[in-house]
Design a protein that fits this description.
Oligomer: single chain
Number of domains: 2
Number of strands: 6
Order of helices and strands: HEEHEHHHHHEHEE
Strand order of the largest sheet: 2-1-3
Strand content: 5-15%
Distance between the termini: 41 Å
Number of helices: 8
Structural class: alpha+beta
Shape: flat
Length: 221
């Protein structure tokens, strides 16, 4: 790995102007066959075959010489936890049991995907949940690398967290409480107590999750 760029050379940009999908893909690529790089000058992500990129590159193409930032994969542990959390949250006992069984032993990722094909509605909800979770981790990476403004990152993470909470509420998570928007004034004390206890209140509109309210990470306990 090349030398880290001095702090003074670090540049931030709005998350909306960053190839977030590219960061997501890079962090999840555990093949070992490709190298991934973030270009802080334009917010884009580049991919190349690792060995040939570094061994055959000229000085003009060398990613470190160009000031690119390497994106190292984060492994599969977080993605596995996403599957477990999702499966445990499914209210349908049979579906939950089959999904959890699929996660036992080797080949869990493939079996989980295969099992989801039996439940098309859950499959669509899983895509929503998984995409939000992976984007949340990609934003964490950008924040750790100081490539985004902390306030921008926090707002973006809250958006993804709300999506995840809403999905769990929709599939029947007992740990997430849902309130119809017409109940807000009458149930506000319950919502406030729930949030104070560290829970998430999911607001339902027209029978579907619409928004989620949770305590801000920096709020006093």
């Amino acid at each position: 790995m090349g030398p880290a760029a001095p702090d003074g050379e670090r540049s931030t940009r709005p998350i909306a102007d960053i190839d977030l999908a590219g960061v997501v893909e890079a962090l999840g690529d555990n093949s070992g066959e490709t190298g991934w790089w973030y270009d802080p000058t334009n917010g884009q992500v580049e991919m190349a075959v690792s060995d040939s990129y570094l061994m055959d590159a000229s000085d003009e193409d060398d990613p470190y010489e160009r000031g690119l930032v390497p994106i190292e994969p984060i492994g599969s542990r977080d993605a596995y936890r996403d599957m477990v959390e999702f499966s445990k949250s499914v209210a349908d006992a049979r579906a939950s049991d089959l999904l959890l069984r699929a996660l036992e032993g080797r080949g869990a990722f493939r079996r989980f995907r295969d099992t989801l094909h039996e439940f098309p509605d859950l499959r669509e909800r899983w895509f929503d949940y998984s995409n939000a979770a992976r984007e949340y981790r990609a934003i964490d990476w950008l924040l750790d690398e100081r490539r985004v403004d902390p306030d921008d990152a926090e707002a973006a993470r809250e958006t993804r967290a709300a999506v995840m909470a809403a999905v769990l509420a929709e599939i029947g998570s007992p740990s997430v409480n849902a309130f119809d928007e017409s109940q807000l004034s009458d149930r506000w004390s319950d919502i406030r107590d729930l949030i104070d206890d560290g829970g998430t209140a999911t607001i339902v509109r027209d029978g579907r999750p619409w928004a989620a309210i949770s305590r801000h990470p920096t709020a006093p306990q």
